[in-house]
Every structure is written in structure tokens, then in C-alpha cells.
Design a protein that fits this description.
binds S-adenosyl-L-homocysteine; 5-stranded parallel sheet; alpha/beta; 36% helix
Amino acid sequence: METMKKGAVFLVGAGPGDPELITAKGMMRLNDCDAVVYDSLSSDRLLALAPETAERIYVGKRAGRHSMKQEEINELLVRLGNEGKKVVRLKGGDPFVFGRGGEEIQALQAAEIPYETVPGVTSAVAVPESVGIPVTHRAMSRSFHVMTGHTLTEGETLPPDFPAFARLSGTLVFLMGLGNLHPIVEGLLEAGKPADLPAAVIENGTLPEERLVRGTLADIEEKAAEAGIKTPAIIVVGETAALDMSSTLRRPLDGIQVCVTGTESFSDRLIRSLTALGAKAENVCRLGLKSYSGGPEMRRAYGNLSSYSWAVFTSANGVRLFLEGLLAAGKDFRSLGHLKLAAVGRGTAQELRRWGFLADYVPDRYQVEDLAQGLTELADGGDRILIPRSRDGSHALNEALEAEGIPYDDIVLYEVTAEWRERERLAEILGQSQYLTFASGSGVNAFFDGLTEEERRGLDHIRIVCIGGVTARALEKRGRKADIVAETYNIPGMTAAVVKDAAISGNTREKR
Ligand code: SAH
């Protein structure tokens, strides 16, 4: 019976970098786990595939933080397994290619924790491929050999089998070799490789930041240094390193860089939609929602629903959290039957509809001032209005209702929290990007609240995309006009708006 309580560890290959290069099986394991243990080589974007409730444990190296020792990682996996959890151990590339996955398996075996390995696309093959270098090619390279360049520094000498390796005729691929590029090149030349043998170094292959340097054994070191190539990087040496079979498909957002803000799941879907069309896109400010639907104020509101005649919603998230909280409070939707419902805009009304409610009132122009105006015409002193919304809600609503003597309860249902991604690089990333997207008014507020004066000035060149009118209005209050407002208030609508704008500004760029 004891084994029944044990969880399981899934050693999942995350692929070489591009999050879409995980396998279907790896994705399924991520979709259904209790914890993810990951390191720097596995894309953050893959984490969005894990359930929101799953624990995310970072064990890699990142600037300023200590990395966990391998033994500690082994212990962690055993502990989580013993706690009965389904654990995904996400590893860059394939788990068994220089990933120390084998050691993790041995620890799990010793502790008798059930495990499964899920193979991944290894960078050894995929990274050269991403820049158009095939590791084998008919009549040119009939084998490929993968070696770690990491152990080379031990005693400052090449390992004894290096000359034998260097004499192989196929394509030679070095992982973790950038720091030892010099001894590697020297060793290859000494073993008799010609100085004009093609070589390439690829940094961050398959990712938006991918960089490639091509050369020969004679000059690759100098060229890589000149370009300032950093890790993670792969070195490829052999005839095929001169080939260029990189994709020729051109897409509407090639060369376009987009900064995305929003919740993890929203951003992930928008990024996927943009990158499918060729854009580089990343989340710069991840929004989270802290719900107070189980707090004392909301509990009281759920308990007194019969005292209200209207409920007013100012965001789709508000609708969702309110209704989920209602169910969690042990009531169902019958308790709302007597209420009239107002929504600030179309997105909010759509969310109501998704749950089976039609809004009784949506203002023509989607802003809180219009909502307030409309409500004062529809309601009077005999009504009582429930306004469950975010902490940063506009006071215009309260003022209008107070002026007309209409009783209301404005209750904090949730709070928007902002987590910055790579805050140190924010100005740089914004500077490189042509577009910045917002999907909610609270997102606008969280973003601008966190910005320094200098960063704010750095936004002048960027074109701002808003999902809809409410978001655009929130932006305007921050002294900035939206450059683009999506025609349909969803991810395809935002994507289409960027494509359309990029085509227009692309044309004007060409004309100049
Ligand atoms: N298990 C991984 C390799 C882990 S060793 C795999 O199968 O791909 C880590 C090394 O892999 C890095 O030092 C680098 O040499 C290489 N690497 C991994 N991802 C890379 C990427 N996107 N671009 C360039 N090199 C990469």
C-alpha cells in the first residue's frame, strides 16, 4: 500500500529552447503535474503549460543566485516523489545528453520512486539545424559526433581520447565548449584537421536571441570573440558547417519584436500567436491576480445578495472571480436571478455570456464614466448596487452614484500584482521592440506604476497595442495614446492588428 502514496517523477526533455519544440508527450506531462523542477535551459514559457496551482521550483544558475548542487536536486526530486506528487523534472534538450539526467534516475531508483523518461529534441542536432547546418549530408558528412567541451579544462589539457575524436571524418559537435574554444581549435589542428575546415558557433539556437558566427578553424575563435558570443553555445566543425539550409519561409511579422504584458496564460497564448507569424515576442510584465473572493467583505456580499438590485462588473476577470467565489461560498447562480447586470465593455459582457448571463446594460462607449452615467439613469435611491472589482477601480463610478444618492457597495474582489521579467534589461528590451501590448486597464496601471521616469521616456518610439477601448482609456489617463486598438477584443484580434500595422509601417519604411 505504501507505494500507492508515492508520486512519480517525469524526466522530461524540454527541447533546445524554442518552447514549441517540446514533444507532445512532454507537454502532456506538464499539463498534469503538481510540481515542475526546472533550470535555465528550459524556457520559462513552458512553465505556462503546467497547471496554475503547480509548484514551480527553480534549481538552475541565474545571475546573483546560487545554483542547487546536483545532490540537492536529487534529494529534492526524491522528497517531492515521497510526498506523493507528480513531478516534472524539465531538462533542456534531451535529459540524457549531458544533462546529468542519469544521476537523477539513479537517485530515484535508490529511493524506489516511480519515474518515466520523456525524450527531448537535443540541441546537439536542433541548434545547428536551426541555422541551416545539417549534422550529416550525403557524401559530405557520414557521421556526427557529440562531445562535451566542459571537461577539457581539467588539468588544462585535452582528454587523452581527444586526438582520436578529432580525427573522425564526420561533423564534430561540441556542447559546453565555448569557454574552451581555444584548446578545442588547437587540438583539432594538431590532430591534422585543415585550417580551412568550416566551423560555426551558435548562441541561443532556436530562440529569438539566436546568433550565428561562421568561419573556419583558422578564424572562428577570433570571429566568435569579436561578435561577443556568449553561452549557451554550440560549436560545429566540419564540411557541413559551411552549408546554409535555413528556413526560407517568410512571414508577416518577421523582424518584428513585441513586448507583451498580461497574465501568464494570456501572455503565453498571445506570444504563441505572434511568434507563429515570425515575431519575436516576450512577456516583460507578468500580471497575477490576488483574489479576495473568500475574504470577509466578499463573504458578506455573497451572504446579502438579496439586498442588491444591480451587480456591476468592470472586467472579465472580475466576472470570473466573482462567480467562482460564489460557488466556493456554497451558493449557485440561482442566487443571482433577481439581479440586473451591468458590464463596462464588450469583453466583460462576453465573459458574463460565457457563464450564461446576458448583461442588462453595457454603455455605448466602454469607459467607467459612461457606465456611471448610464447607471444613474437606470437606477435610483431605491436600488442597491454591488460593485465587486479590482482595488484600483476608478472613483468616477462612486462619485456619480453618490451624487445621485444611489446606495452601493464597492468591494475589493481582487488585486492585480505585477512581476517584472528581467527588470535590469527592461529598458534594453523595450528599446529593441516596435510594439508593446496591454490587455487590461489594470495591466496598464500595474505597468506604469512600476516604471521609472527614464523607462517611461524610453517608450516614446514604441507603438502601443490595446485589446480594447477600456484599456486604451486607462492608457490615456497615463498620458499616452494607444497607437492601435484591436477591432476584436481577443488574441486573434490583437495579432491581426499588429500584422496590419506592421504591413503599413513596413511599406512606409520601404518608401523612404
Ligand atoms: N541536454 C541538453 C544539453 C545540456 S548541456 C541537450 O540535449 O541539448 C548544455 C549545453 O547545451 C550548453 O552549454 C550548450 O552547449 C548546449 N545548448 C543547449 N541549448 C542550446 C541552445 N539553445 N543554443 C546553443 N547551445 C545550446
